[in-house]
Amino acid sequence: MIVNKGIATHEAGHVIASLTYSIPIISVSIDRSDGTPPHIRHGSYQMPADLAPEAYGVFCLAGGSAEQLFFGSITDGSDAVDVAACRENLFLNGFDVLTVGGEMARLRAAADRLVRTERQRIEKIAQLLLRYGSLSGDQIFELSR
Q1: Degrees, nearest 5: CA angle 40-45-51
Q2: pLDDT tens-place string over residues 71-101
Q3: Do 59 and 17 form a contact (C-beta atoms < 8 A)?
Q4: What is the C-alpha separation between 118 and 66, in angstroms, rounded?
Q5: Which has fewest Cβ within 10 Å: 4, 41, 88, 112?
Q6: Which residues contact residue 75 at a Cβ distance below 8 angstroms, ignoring those fewer than 6 apart?
């Protein structure tokens, strides 16, 4: 089962962030024929151990930013897992309850800027995901050249 254009765009946002921050992509899929619920583990990435918290945060939030840019407000909670992962990573990197909210806003703004700048590439990747259902990291790398 291939899911909707919003999910393809969401995943394309993560792909663009991974290319921007040199996060290796194993695969990205919007094909849920295995019964996996929407918005859960669509992409496989190899996170570098030394990835900066900001890069990880923008990566997490870029999917929701792309979906919002193209389709407006997110009302189905599709970014909840990503937001939680970003927040957890900030706490693990020394941010506290008083500072994490401001840092989340800063990272959201950075993710928004990235997806606005890369709008055409996001559209292209989303269209390919809609056509093929999934792309390997090698295919994405070739397409990004």
Answers
A1: 115
A2: 998 888 888 989 999 999 999 999 999 999 9
A3: yes
A4: 9
A5: 41
A6: none
Query: Residue 40's pLDDT band (boundaries 50, 70, 90)?
Result: very low
pLDDT at 111 over 90: yes
The residue extents of the domains of the chain are: 5-143
Give the pTM: 0.89
State the DSSP code for 25. E
Residue 62, judged by CB atoms within 10 A of its CB (0-12, 13-18, 19+), counts as: buried
Fold exhibited by the domain 5-143 = Methane Monooxygenase Hydroxylase; Chain G, domain 1 (1.20.58)
Q: In terms of residues, how long is the chain?
A: 145
Name the residue with tokens 């990566």: 59
Q: CA 72 → CA 95, 134, 144, distances in Å?
A: 30, 24, 26
